[in-house]
Amino acid sequence: MLDVQPNAGHVALAQLEQHIPSVTIITQNIDGLHQRAGSTRVIELHGTINTVSCSAAEHGSLAWPDSPNLPFCSVCAAPLRPDVVWFGERLDLAKIQAAELASQTCDVFLAIGTSGVVAPAATFPMTARAHRARLIDLNLEDTPLSRHARHRLRGTAAQLLPALLAATWAE
């Protein structure tokens, strides 16, 4: 995953932050591509593959060790695991609360490349809409969320976001 580079959509969102410093990205992705593109306010609901933690105790997160071998905790020797939420595990409540607050206080909510059905992420666009934000659905096709959006744009994030940014801040 370290060889994967941010696409034009990731870069456009990072550029959007230059125009609107309060931009907050809520993502279910674990790849860290938003940060690699330059975004600074990213809520990673499912964690990140870029750091590891002790599988036996809370000894804090560390960068991935530079070794091809299975990494072990330097405190208790238990295997280290990626800082991601596995199937059946609970999401971090602080991240859910931060995403909820961002959804409640935004003026515009871009729902990008989401099915709009996986909770709790699927609730955030509707929370934003309930708090009078403009909901814009950017996706390859319609989803259950689409009918609630003020605007519906069809295509990939890499196609749509740079065009949206250029149209909004054309010089």
Descriptive labels:
about 170 residues; Rossmann fold; 2 domains; three-stranded antiparallel sheet; three-stranded parallel sheet; 5 helices; about 30% helix; NAD; NAD-dep_sirtuin_deacylases; histone deacetylase activity, NAD-dependent; transferase
Total helical elements: 5
Query: How would you describe the shape?
Result: globular
Query: CATH topology of the largest domain, what is it called?
Result: Rossmann fold
**How many runs of DSSP E, i.e. beta strands?**
8
Question: Which H/E pattern describes the elements?
Answer: HEHEEEEHEHEEH
How much of the residues is beta strand, in percent? 15-25%
Rg over CA atoms: 18 Å
Helical proportion, percent range:
25-40%
CATH architecture of the largest domain: 3-Layer(aba) Sandwich
CATH superfamily of the largest domain, please? Answer: TPP-binding domain
User: Which CATH class of the largest domain is shown?
Assistant: Alpha Beta
Spatial gap, N to C terminus: 36 Å
Largest β-sheet summary: 3 strands, antiparallel
| Count of the separate structural domains | 2
Please identify the structural class as seen in this structure.
Answer: alpha/beta
> Runs with pLDDT <50, length 5+?
none
Mean pLDDT: 92
Strand order of the largest sheet: 4-3-5
InterPro entries: DHS-like_NAD/FAD-binding_dom, NAD-dep_sirtuin_deacylases, Sirtuin, Ssirtuin_cat_dom
Keywords: NAD, Transferase
GO molecular function, one term: histone deacetylase activity, NAD-dependent
Protein name: protein acetyllysine N-acetyltransferase
Any overview of this molecule?
With 171 residues, the chain is an alpha/beta fold. It folds into two domains: 8-46 and 89-168, Rossmann fold; 48-84. It is built from five helices and eight strands; from the N terminus they run H-E-H-E-E-E-E-H-E-H-E-E-H. The protein has helices spanning 8-19, 33-37, 93-105, 123-130, 157-168; strands spanning 25-27, 42-44, 47-54, 61-63, 80-84, 108-112, 134-139, 151-154. Helix 3 runs parallel beside helix 4 (123-130). 26% of the residues are buried.
